[in-house]
Amino acid sequence: MIKFQSFLSSSSGNSTFVTDDESCLLIDCGAAGSYIEKCLSRLGKTGKDLSGIFLTHAHSDHIAAAGILSRKFDLPLYATEGTYARGARQIGNIRDENRHIVEPGTDITFGALTVHVFSIPHDAEGSVSYTVSDGESKFGIATDSGYVSNEIIENLTGCETVIVESNHDVEMLWQGPYPYPLKRRILGDGGHLSNALCGELCVTLAKSGTKAFWLGHLSEHNNLPELAYTCVRDALKENGFSVGADVALNVIPKYWIEGAL
């Protein structure tokens, strides 16, 4: 059975641990290396237990410690050519043997786990995301997406559990402190999903059988956990899905270990 633990999820940092109790993976590594190590320690793991790190794109809130941990623990790093190119300075030098290029539509296998790569519409070159399957259960993650693409729906369909982006409330964003160009970027096709769009995605996935939704990558300035939860819950309810009976719905905390950064 696939298990996961979000180490942190917000517009300032993101990292998700995924395991079947044999292979251990990190999807994104957007925090200080010391924080990631503290999270691993809470699970009884160290960086040496990781089979690899998968990066979704080259923004710093997703790659901050990727190169650091790869060098320290001799870990394979999986990313698209675009992510390696755009994130070269922050990733730094890693061993050639640990530099793995992934492309949408491909699979990478670790024991019983299969990691599948798919495209994400975001304004970072080579943005992708991943599903992880053990042949019986399937977990998926899709954040940093400007809109709900066909690729996202196709790849998350069949996942029992998903982490999906509920980044902002549109009204809060328009009334908030961000400069106008940044607001336009967030609302654009290369930006982030609003609570309302996240709700539509969750409804679509619930209709295809997804049972557990975790809302992530919430904006620190343009959203509230209770607002994201209520918006998605109401969308599910309006389409005949009762939270707590038909599906599970949770908001991921910004940090798993408070005060550890």
Structure in words:
There is one protein chain. The mean pLDDT is 96. The protein has a single domain, classed as Ribonuclease Z/Hydroxyacylglutathione hydrolase-like (Metallo-beta-lactamase, Chain A, 4-Layer Sandwich), CATH 3.60.15. The protein has a 7-stranded mixed sheet with strand order 7-8-9-10-11-12-13. A 6-stranded mixed sheet has the order 1-2-3-4-5-6. Helix 10 (225-238) links the parallel strand 12 (212-216) and strand 13 (248-251). The chain starts with a strand and ends in a 10-residue tail after the last strand. By secondary structure, the chain is of the alpha/beta class. It has 10 helices and 13 strands. The radius of gyration is 17 Å and the shape is globular.
How would the blueprint of this fold be written?
Elements: E1 3-10, E2 13-19, E3 24-27, H1 33-42, E4 52-54, H2 60-63, H3 66-73, E5 77-79, H4 81-86, H5 88-91, E6 99-101, E7 107-110, E8 113-119, E9 128-133, E10 138-142, H6 150-156, E11 161-165, H7 170-175, H8 180-187, H9 195-207, E12 212-216, H10 225-238, E13 248-251
Parallel strand pairs: 3-4, 4-5, 5-6, 10-11, 11-12, 12-13
Antiparallel strand pairs: 1-2, 2-3, 7-8, 8-9, 9-10
Helix pairs in contact: 9-10
